[in-house]
Amino acid sequence: MTTLRLFGILFFCGLLSPSQEVLSGLSCAVSPGAMQNVLSDAIIQNGLLQQYMQGLVVPNIVGEGSLLNSPTSITGLHLVRVRLPRLFVVLLPGIGVQLTIVTKLELSGNCLVGLLSDLIDILVDVNITANIKCTNFESGAVQVVVEDCLCVLGTIKIKVLSGLLSLSVNEIVLKQLTATLPGLLCPVVHIVVNLVNIQLMGTLNAVVPVGTAGTIHYQLASLPFTSGMFLSLDLDGVVKQVGGGIIPHDSSPSALPPLLGKLLALGLDQSFLNAALSLLIQIPPQTFTCTPESFSGASSLQEAIMTLIPAGCSSCPGTSGLSITLALSGKPLILLEENKATVELSVMIQVFIKGSDGSIINLLLLRADLGLNARVSVVGGRLVLGLSLGSILLSLESSDVGISNISGLKPHCSALLMEMLMPHINGSLGLGIPLPNVLGIPFVNVDIQILMRLLVILV
């Protein structure tokens, strides 16, 4: 049994009891087909297996002669090429992953039969199977255990340059390769698995910027676990503002929908999305004059405000020189329901005039609680939200001139926010929330499901 001590996560395996299945902001289900594609690309297509098997030297094969057969010696036998390698993955429930590599090994060397020297080429079918799991996840450390590596030889074809080959050579080669190849190939598999683990670990343990406002640090939250249908991973998404302040978020267990032929399901908890949105939606207060040059509905808004000023108010100024300040109040809050995503956001609307002495006279200080309809998409590996105004609840905070009834201002304030605020919000959201690059599986042909408190991306 071989034990490797690594820090991070080995994606080939996992064992986790159901009581430990707690989400930490994000969760993933990876199909066996996706695992097979990922590992085949890393081990076979990228040439890693060929690279570490290249130059493999087989011990000399020596067969003693007899009355009917001459002594046989095969020396300098080495691997020339790995031909037609294929990789298969089976998820073993509660155990880990069974990795199978099927290939043909082309060997070449020198053969001496009696006094006759010749070149020899050997083509051997090989089936390597390894069961791998990881245990003892603690503080980011995973103990990886290779429980078994079995190397089975199949058909062996032997060719010598002279074309003369005795049955005794076939028997000797088969016997010796069966005895020696497993001890040579299994260590290579261990090395390759280790290297691929390091590559795949980097797809989860990563710090990605969110514009200039902060970062999200993705990392494994617990030991992976396997069922017969998928490999499951729970991830932490640590949302951090520039300067080091962490935006906390709470998560609760949620079940992902069935993969149904998809490669990957990535679940984003509502609380995690709220933390990420608070990074994206950081718009400084904006102040502008209430004129048609700044806001197309300025004239109608001024007229509506004039009708609200109490009659006989001698100290009330006119609306010339009217200014408006829009400022976000509190943090945005995304709400996920079945097939629906909305964002709640509060905005303070200050309508004021500067007095001749420089003092500020607040005609109105309003609070607008917005219900924004969210359209969700994935673009370039980022989750992008587009918001539109769905509802507005307007309340009066204060008025220096005695205005008390603001019921007629709702349509004017809606027009004001749609024109002057919503473009800024959608512009900041256009950066998107960077998604974890789970196993390097690209986000193409994406389906999005919105469930209660959970947004699921299916690839």
Explain this structure to me?
There is one protein chain. The protein is 21% helix and 46% strand. It has 459 residues and is of the alpha+beta class. The strands form 3 sheets. Strands 2, 8, 9, 10, 11, 12, 13, 20 and 21 form a 9-stranded antiparallel beta sheet that branches. The protein is rod-shaped. The relative contact order is 0.14.
Overview features:
459 residues; alpha+beta; nine-stranded antiparallel β-sheet; six-stranded antiparallel β-sheet; 7 helices; 21% helix; 46% strand; rod-shaped; disordered N terminus
How many strands in all?
Answer: 21
Q: What are the segments in which pLDDT stays under 50 over at least 5 consecutive residues?
A: 1-23
Indicate the proportion of strand residues.
Answer: over 45%
- The CA-CA distance between the termini, in Å, is 37 Å
Task: Estimate the global geometry from the Cα principal axes.
Answer: rod-shaped
SSE order in H/E notation?
Answer: EEHHEEEEEHEEEEEEHEHEEEEHHEEE
| Count of individual helical segments | 7
Q: Determine the structural class based on helices, strands and strand pairing.
A: alpha+beta
> What would you report as the Rg, rounded to the nearest angstrom?
34 Å
How helix-rich are the residues, as a percent range?
10-25%
